[in-house]
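Continued from yesterday's entry.
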Amino acid sequence: MSLLITSQVLLWIAVGSLAVVVVALARQIGVLHERIAPVGALKIDTGPAIGEKAPLLTLPTLGGGVGVIGQPLEPGTAQLLMFVSPDCPVCKKIIPLVKDFARAEKLQVLYVGDGRAEDQRRLVERFQLDPLAFINSPEVGMRFGVGKLPYAVLIDDAGIVVASGLVNSREHLESLVVAKQMRVPSVQAYLRQKAAEDAATSASL
């Protein structure tokens, strides 16, 4: 009888210990999730700063037209500059997402490349892009301080740079729009600001 009671006590102790471990793990997962989400486009501190006027550029497109960057647009619209390359595997992954995302968000997309025109035209044909919406010029990348790809810049209807960063997923693209709506330089900036506010609140308690 005493052996049965002892076994039951040990069983309850084991169950209680397991419950404590589960609670601790759940808390750690929550902390980890808070630290890594949402994952936004990684901002690189080069080129025009957020809130600055975008350089006004008028350059020829692959389709024989003219692409204009930084001009005033219809109220409520925005221009998305998408820097890509035929030699960039991630670019090939992101382009279809950009096409769908731009339609959903009603963005005017202007793709920007820097390489041989023949290679860029093959990229345009492969992904059925509008050649009139593709600029092939190193000047744009230099003016916006682009060093890695794929890179995106979001410009509002007044020609102001409102968000930018490296992008490799739809979530990264969405973070640019979120940053614009929240009027912060990037989602990372928002998370830092929120963490500082939370820390200040905790310190005051």
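--- second protein ---
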Amino acid sequence: MGQVIRPHLQSGGVVLCDRYADSTLAYQGYGRSLDLQTLRMILDFATGGLWPDLTFYLDIDVEAGLKRKKTGGDEWNRMDDLDIEFYRRVRSGYLEMVAQDPARWVVGGCGA
């Protein structure tokens, strides 16, 4: 973080990440029901308070997303074996984060 991302931003650069702290909140906080306030404190410490200016969230129905994963040829991993309620909580968590800070989020649909 401090060696690459922050110096790049300070020099006027742009950083794109495919996952960041919001994913931790969605999967660990909302999905696994860990304490959100504690997670936010840990993430603030771990990131040095660096949060995205803009986050793109590609939304898809949970069942459709899992079906795509199974038939898409990508490697199946232990996260993919979690129950569907877990993924519903994760999706709801993302949508809640969007509602809490709509100016930072761009939401697009991924179709079915």
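The chain has a mean pLDDT of 90. The domain at 18-109 is CATH 3.40.50.300 (Rossmann fold). Will compare against the first tomorrow.
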